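Figure 3 (text version): structure tokens given as input.
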């Protein structure tokens, strides 16, 4: 596994909040102060797939050390095995997820009252079993949940909200204030991202090039990814960073997802 970030902050560890976002090919962990959400420590890895046992052990050992100081441990799935359902169909979630994703693990649900939706999702079965054995008291969310519960950064009813992690990105497409799509995609080159976003815009009736993009995660103005997007979209913004501190020279929007998760569970 490859360490992308290992950041030491100024926040206190005692009584804190341990957060872990896990997706295909990456894992990000953080220990924050429980009330201020000031960062104490953050680690971000790109991972091999399938994940070697020794790499899993190294990540969970670090989490165990942090959890000795913390009041809560929260895991957030960024895996694509997820679906958003109207709340009136929440009872059907345990059947819908296995039908869509036959090799998924235990089905979990988040209620997203602001949108009258339920996020139904599953971690990969082997990872789910390992995490539950190591952290039986942990809480669980899907990454779509905090993204929908928190402001994106621009107050417009039509937009594409895009969060980047190593070799993947997830999209929330909104048109006239209504959610049209929530999906996780893999990519190898920046043009792959452009292709997917333009296709999403066309299929959901968004205004193509003029669709506002709200970017967060591992992308900045100097990246090849941003430069490619800039050629095809006329309105690009970075995600909400209110209350988020830029860490170790990295832009604050790198950490939007984790801080949205912290707000979600506080």
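Below: residues designed for each position.
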């Amino acid at each position: 596994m490859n360490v992308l970030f290992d950041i030491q902050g100024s926040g206190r560890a005692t009584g804190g909040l341990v957060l872990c976002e896990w997706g295909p090919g990456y894992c990000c962990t953080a220990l924050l102060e429980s009330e201020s959400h000031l960062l104490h420590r953050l680690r971000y890895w790109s991972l091999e797939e399938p994940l070697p046992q020794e790499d899993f052990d190294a990540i969970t050992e670090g989490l165990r050390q942090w959890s000795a100081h913390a009041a809560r441990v929260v895991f957030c799935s960024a895996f694509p095995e997820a679906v958003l359902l109207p709340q009136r169909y929440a009872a059907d979630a345990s059947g819908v997820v296995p039908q869509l994703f036959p090799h998924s693990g235990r089905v979990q649900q988040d209620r997203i009252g602001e949108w009258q939706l339920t996020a139904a999702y599953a971690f990969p079965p082997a990872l789910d079993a390992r995490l539950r054995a190591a952290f039986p008291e942990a809480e669980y969310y899907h990454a779509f949940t905090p993204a929908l519960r928190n402001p994106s950064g621009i107050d417009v009813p039509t937009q594409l909200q895009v969060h980047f992690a190593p070799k993947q990105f997830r999209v929330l497409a909104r048109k006239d204030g209504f959610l049209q799509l929530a999906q996780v995609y893999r990519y190898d080159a920046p043009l792959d991202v452009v292709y997917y976003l333009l296709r999403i815009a066309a299929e959901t009736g968004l205004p193509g090039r003029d669709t506002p993009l709200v970017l967060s995660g591992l992308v900045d103005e100097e990246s090849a990814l941003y430069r490619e997007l800039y050629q095809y979209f006329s309105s690009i913004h970075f995600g909400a960073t209110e209350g988020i501190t830029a860490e170790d020279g990295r832009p604050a929007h790198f950490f939007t997802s984790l801080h949205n998760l912290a707000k979600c569970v506080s």
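Residues 105 and 124 are 5 Å apart (CA to CA).
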